[in-house]
């Protein structure tokens, strides 16, 4: 086992787990890649037709242009969460989670492998949507590096959160409940379709307590150069949220919470 670890980290095992997670969602790419692109396109078309012509500018840009980064980030958030949560929940329900727990992988390595797969899916989805937005709306990111950083942070945070949810859930109903009653509302109410300046003060304060708001706001700043808050503040909040989520999932994996009989 020492030879396989190449020092303190089991890089081979970590790489294998990450590859498995990537191959898992690529095997159903119509569902995991094309479906998010179509959903994002539908959101843009519907809001453009229903609201766009009469909405006017938001923060100095056209409404359709304003919501494009929000829809991109919201899609990344949902897909990163779904990747880890469904992977672990399916393995538990099918009874093959032991195949993941048996190899010589530490709790940190397991978390890294799963989260890396979520980040890969989030990046792929973001790239596909970004290309579509550039082709059809002519929106080219002003700061591609900033967009990349916030998309990766969103993937890490939501991947770790999805992993915790998958570990906690004993059946798919519980997983669906978290997705429908927590993740989706928080994603929609994070400035995806509006500037939080239009909200009452209480709602603005609640938005500032939501890490997803900073992820969406950071991507919007990187793509359009406008945002509701400082991108540096958003970066700090997202980094802290990622660290807290990763620490939580590491603790659950280390203790074998709901994974070991």
From TrEMBL:
A single cellular component GO annotation: ATP-binding cassette (ABC) transporter complex
InterPro entries documented for this protein: ABC-2_transport_permease, ABC2_TM, ABC2_TM_bact-type, ABC_2_transport
Record keywords, A-Z: Cell membrane, Membrane, Transmembrane, Transmembrane helix, Transport
PROSITE patterns for this protein: ABC_TM2
Location in the cell: Cell inner membrane; Membrane
Transmembrane segments: 28-52, 58-77, 111-139, 145-168, 175-196, 232-253
Family to which this protein belongs: Belongs to the ABC-2 integral membrane protein family.
Protein name per UniProt: Transport permease protein
Organism from which the protein derives: Histidinibacterium aquaticum
Lineage summary: Bacteria, Pseudomonadati, Pseudomonadota, Alphaproteobacteria, Rhodobacterales
